[in-house]
Amino acid sequence: MNKFSRIGFIFAAAGSAVGLGNIWKFPYITGEYGGGAFVLVYLLCIVFIGLVVFIAESYLGQASEANVSSTFIKMSKTKNPNWKYAGFMVFAGLFILAFYSVVLGWILNYIIVSFGNLPNSAQEAGNSFNTLISEKIGLQILLHSIVALITIFIVLKGVKDGIEKINLILMPLLGIIMFGLLAYALTLDSFSKSIEFMFRADWSKIDENALLAALGQAFFTLSLGIGTIMTYSASLPQKNNFIKSSLYVAIVDTTIAIVAGLIIFSFLFAAGAKSSAGPGLVFISLPVIFEQWGTLGNIIAVAFFSALLFAGITSAVSMIEPVLMLFIERFNMTRKKAVATCGSIFYIFGIIALLSLSSSYKESLTFFGKNAFDWMDFLTSSISMPIAAIITCIFLGFFVDKEKIKNKFTQHVPVAIFNIWYVLVKYIVPLAVIILLLNKLGIIK
Ligand code: TRP
Asked: Are 357 and 134 in contact (CB under 8 A)?
């Protein structure tokens, strides 16, 4: 099997982690929950929950060197074949990818728009975004098709020549663009206001909803709960320190999220705009601000949306790879056939997702008050991913030989670190995630 290089793994895992979750979602939920205090809660969730599960997935992948289904069977004390059902988690990847690809299509559209005339009022910006998602079905299908083809083309080439290579190109580019945008934000008077907003804790907006949003975000941003990290780690050479790599990835991911927040809030505050614009923040609030900056604004707009696209593409490939590996190994498929099968599934569901937002098909694609797009998001982010995380933790805590895990950990870290991680993985994290899940299901408030 073609394995990642050490640096290739870190880039690929960081490429998976850094995505729309960092540059689009993190800033807007931080805005909605009032800034600093939310950031602090989020950081705690990353360290004590996200990183713990990340290390868990990475350990399982590296130790088993197999697809998610076989990993669970192989690593269980009794080698019970029923553990293969834990492989269900990889399918969530196809449904996340379905709507993620649609959003990446919108971003592609905004890159193109950024070369020309940007909207000059909030009203106009809102209208053009709404027209795109509710009326322009053909255009959206075209954009979604382009993103789908790029994704398929990369994964067709495999882990080393496809995924590793694209990450080694796009991640440095993303880093350069973010650095450039940060440098520009630094020249604005509003930068200090942005710092204050992100780092001064105002606890008044922190309620249980904020805690759960922070926890959910920590999972999504680290690409946990669908077997991505397990699958990538299966291609991590045995001698490499999976704990150190996990730590690097968490640091890169968190840094990009914070930097994205600082940039976006500097831009918003420079224009006197509100920090709590919600999901429309990057598609509606930002374009108007870029417009006010003239040609420089166009350049910044192209750079910003390209950064989003690059971050998103490297995440997209990581959503499909776990299913591919499972199909290839367990169903003896060729990579080509696996890509054709999985590619068609996410492509078709992507079209269903975008149609469910359009004014013509909205009604027929809304079920129990939620449209197909939101259902795919809900069933994956709120149901499948937390369940998968709980299973992974309980599996490690109760069904895998503790000594075996300990041996591998202590090759890299002192036993005290292992002990802390073990208690977190066995008891604390599953408990926290069960609470999250019950809340998402509306069982507890
Ligand atoms: N982490 C990515 C983001 O922040 C999204 C992502 C990629 C993902 N792979 C994943 C989320 C696997 C959940 C599971 O945008």
From this structure: yes
Q: For the whole model, what pTM was predicted?
A: 0.94
**Would you say the CB of residue 386 lies under 6 angstroms from ligand 1?**
no
Give yes or no for residue 388 CB within 6 A of ligand 1.
no
Ligand 1 atom at minimum distance from 225 CA: 14
Q: Please work out whether the CB of residue 223 comes within 6 Å of at least one atom of ligand 1.
A: yes
Q: pLDDT confidence of 443, banded at 50, 70, 90?
A: confident
Q: Which of 121-130, 186-195, 230-239, 242-251 has the lowest mean pLDDT?
A: 121-130
Residue 274 Cα to ligand 1 midpoint, Å, equals 27
pLDDT at 377 over 70: yes
Q: Check pocket membership of 246 for ligand 1, CB cut-off 6 A.
A: no
Ligand 1 centroid vs 164 CA: distance in angstroms? Answer: 17
Which tens digits make up the pLDDT trace of 325-350?
A: 999 999 999 999 999 999 999 999 99
Q: What is the pLDDT of residues 33-51, one digit of tens each?
A: 889 999 999 999 999 999 9
Of the candidates 99, 390, 107, 75, the one whose C-alpha atom is nearest the C-alpha of residue 234 is 75
CB count in 10 Å sphere of residue 440:
16
With the most atoms of ligand 1 within 8 angstroms of its CB, the residue from 54, 94, 226 to mutate is 226
Tell me how far the alpha carbon of residue 318 lies from the centroid of ligand 1, in angstroms.
8
> Which residue owns the Cα nearest ligand 1 atom 8?
223
Q: What is the mean pLDDT of residues 291-300?
A: 92
Q: Does 20 contact ligand 1 (Cβ within 6 A)?
A: yes
pLDDT at 1 over 70: no
Ligand 1 centre from 359 Cα, in Å?
29
Closest C-alpha residue for ligand 1 atom 12: 223
For residue 205, the model assigns a pLDDT of 83
